[in-house]
Amino acid sequence: MFKLAMRLLRQRPGTSIATLVALAGGVMILMSLAVFVQSGLQFEPEPKQFAAADVVVAHRHITVSTKEFDGGTTTSEVPLPEGTVPADLADQIRTVPGVTDVQAVDVRDGRAGAIAVKAPAGAHEAIEKLAEQAGVEAYAGDERGWAERSTSIEARSLLVQAGSAFGGYVVLLIVFVVAGTVGLSVRHRRRDLALLRAIAATPAQVRRLVVAEAAVVGLASAVIGVPAGLWSTHRVHDQLVTRGFLPADFPIANPAPAAVLAIVVTLLVAVLSARIAARRVARIRPAEALGEAAVEPARGGRIRLASGLITLAGATVSLFFAAGLSGTAALAAAVGMLYLFVLAVALLAPWVNGFAARVLAPVLRTVWGVSGDLAAANLRANARGMSAVLSALVLSVGFGGSVWFLQDNLQRQSVAQSRDGMLADRVVTAPTGLTPAAVAKVRQIPGVEAATGVRRTSVVVRVFDGAEPAVARAVDPAQLSSTMDLKVREGSLAGLTDGTIAVSALQASSSSWKVGDTADMWLADGTPVQPRVVAIYDRGLGFGDVLLPQQGGTYDEVLVRSQGTADRQLAAFGTVATADQLTGQLSRDLAVSAWLNKLLITVMVAYAALAAGNTMVMAALARGRELAVLRLAGVTRRQVRRMVNAEQVGLLGTALTVGAVIAGATLVAVVHALTGTFLPYIPPLGWVIVLGGTTVLALVTTILPVGRLLRVPPVRAAGAKE
After folding, report:
1. Residue 571 is inside which H or E element, if any?
2. pLDDT tens digits, residue range 132-154?
């Protein structure tokens, strides 16, 4: 069977190469992503700061328990950015028999950053019990590295989180692309498969042959995909190091397991797709085989129609959910909506193509005359055959027009909220921070109207079935309303005192908080608190999701509202910058942090575009006999070209319209969830690039192959294999 499969593949290099490209691209993308996720999961930090200690007591995470609908309980660990331990715990540890030395690290306000202990192995269990009673952790042996705060541990979390967030979407995209390409390849070869049925090949033999061909191409794709995956992994690693996401010495895992995983997944998808695509041809009776193969069925089956309508209904429901919700729930609903709409279009593509052909027929006939008539007839007759082309184009426009622009909207809204809400005109910073006494002195400087101390921190809040960190600001509330305009929508910042918080509308929605509610949360050091919500504000992207009162300790910066004449006096307290400079730095920081998301999105959009181009080349090259018959019937080359151009206009018009509607709905839903506005920002050249790029891609991948086909004499092409 493999020998026959190899011979058939050599006879049709066009479809074989197209399938090979799709599979190799899938192997490359999946392998690179898997390498980084594997690197994060396998990372084990070596103790450096605490290398001489036997046990380290620290507080690096909290465990959150959540009740399930079935009555069970699940637990999850959330990292703490500033976890501390009680300083008096060191005295308790000293009483443990065998302990020879105890050192509390970074003691401040009765809390210590960590406690290093010298003790024999027999004393470790007692130390662990004391740590557990205090609500913290004890790290011994190889686990001591986890007690340290290092860039490598942060990088590890980034790799795992990014991989988890995008991994599922990447796998779904690869499944979608590979399944579409393999399915189209099998349909273009239905004449060969039908001929085998006509000469008494059994349905099982036909299915095995198609599966064998897919397996051969899948294995061949590994030869290209694995080296490409190694190259892309190396390039991305260099960029991650250069941009500060990864330390240069962060260990990258052996790529072999990731390569095996990528090969197995893509091979499995290819084989299953081929098996499904071969079902119809394999069921044809031998006596009817060639007749069935001569004409492409205009529509799909009832199961496909029903599945498409159900998926479309699910996508519509997700649209209403996304529009009615806000916060994390709305974001999840919007992203799910994008995939559901694209899947619905893929399932309903034959009917969408047929409907579009009927609607566009008068336009094509008016503009292109006889060639337009032929184009409309072809679009109707080949509605099912062009399903994969429509799906690939919609996928490209849908991803490119929604997910990419989302990052632009987040950056723009964050900067706009920071700029519009900043009433201060100066910002004072110092390497060691600024004390409340320094803030009081700043307020006494002539020309200073108000000053607010701000410490950048974070908190851990409950969200849905777990908990997650949220950006927070600890502020001196005395003159807050004179230096910040948070655009309060409910409550008042005047009530921001000890035991209270103000939260953004996005966070309030995600955590189901209202003014007057008690919030269940943890401070950055792991201290559980239950403050009362006194205000809800709109400008969370610019000023953080949680606002905490702080009247002691040190501040990272002081926001100063002045008459512009106090810069010299302010310089005595630290570095003075303007509010515009602060906003500019925020914009640059956001651009750096968004780079990784844009990289992953670019890969996904590029792969979708590759699939579109790949599919259109396959569809164009499969039309050799059809175009030859038209030319033998008296249609000139010029008329054929005009017919193809008219078909492309019809197909592109349909794909761009459907894709733009899906992208627009997704983008509006996500932007509304995150910013509260229904009007997303689109860069001036954004849609020009997305729509223009898709148009150029479609024209190049169709016009050039058709031009090549037209150079073949029609008599010769009419009898050639497609």
Report:
1. none
2. 999 899 999 889 988 888 888 88
**Residue 292: pLDDT above 80?**
no
Tokens 């026959």 map to which residue? 4
Output DSSP code: residue 530: -
Measured in whole angstroms, the distance separating CA 687 from the mean position of its chain's CA atoms is 20
Those residues whose C-beta lies under 8 Å from the C-beta of residue 633, and which sit 6 or more positions away, are none
Residues 6+ apart with CB under 8 A from 317: none
Strands, E assignment, 370-447: 426-434
Q: Alpha-carbon torsion 51, 54, 58, 60, what sign? A: positive
Residues near 92 by beta carbon (within 8 Å), at least 6 away in sequence:
130
Cα 266 to its chain centre, rounded Å, is 20
Task: Give which of 493, 590, 505 is closest to 549, Cα–Cα.
Answer: 493
The rounded distance, in Å, linking the Cα atoms of 46 and 144 is 7
pLDDT score at 140: 92
Tokens of 237: 């690693």
pLDDT at residue 309, rounded to an integer: 92
Instruction: Give the DSSP H/E element, type plus range, for residue 302.
Output: helix 302-324
Q: In what order do the strands lie in the sheet with 101-105?
A: 101-105, 114-118, 55-58, 137-140
pLDDT in tens, 520-554: 899 988 888 999 999 999 998 889 999 999 877 89
Half-sphere exposure of 52 (CA within 13 A, CB side): 5
Q: ∠336-350-692 over CA atoms, to 5°?
A: 65
Residues 6+ apart with CB under 8 A from 709: 620, 621, 623, 624, 627, 628, 717
Supply 491's token pair. Answer: 């409550």
**C-alpha span between 35 and 151 (Å, rounded):** 19
Cβ contact 621:702 at 8 Å: no
Q: What are phi and psi for residue 434, nearest 5 degrees?
A: -125, 135
Residue carrying the six token digits 């740590």: 131
Q: What angle do CA 11, 13, 19 make, to 5 degrees?
A: 130
User: At which residue do the structure tokens 């849908």 appear?
Assistant: 398
Q: What's the alpha-carbon Rg for the chain, to the nearest Å?
A: 31
List, in order, residues 6 or more apart from 367 with CB less than 8 Å away.
Answer: 646
What's residue 529's pLDDT?
92
Parallel, antiparallel or unpaired: strands 500-504 and 532-537: parallel
User: What is the phi-psi region of residue 455: left when phi exceeds 0, alpha when psi lies from -120 to 50, beta otherwise?
Assistant: beta
> Please, what sign has the CA dihedral across residues 211, 217, 218, 220?
positive
- On whether the CB atoms of residues 66 and 260 are closer than 8 A, the answer is no
d(CA 119, CA 88) in angstroms, rounded, equals: 18
Give the count of alpha carbons within 13 A of 616, CB side only. Answer: 31
pLDDT digits (tens, 9 = 90+) for 24-44: 988 999 999 999 999 999 998
d(CA 343, CA 560): 53
- The string of pLDDT tens digits covering residues 44-83 is 888 888 989 999 999 998 888 777 666 667 777 888 878 8
Q: How far apart are CA 722 and CA 716, in angstroms?
A: 12
252: which DSSP letter? P
CA angle 52, 56, 59 (to 5 degrees): 145
Closest CA to 393 of 356, 342, 359: 342
Instruction: Give Cβ neighbours of residue 154 (< 8 Å, ≥ 6 apart).
Output: none
Tell me how far apart the alpha carbons of residues 722 and 719 are, in angstroms, rounded to a whole number: 9
Q: How far apart are CA 288 and CA 381, in angstroms?
A: 20
Q: What is the pTM of this model?
A: 0.80
Q: Give the span between the Cα atoms of 333 and 315, in whole angstroms.
A: 9
Please count the other Cβ atoms lying within 10 Å of the Cβ belonging to residue 520: 16
Determine which helix (DSSP H) or strand (DSSP E) holds 475, and give its type and residue range: strand 466-475
522 pairs with which residues across the strands? Answer: 460, 528
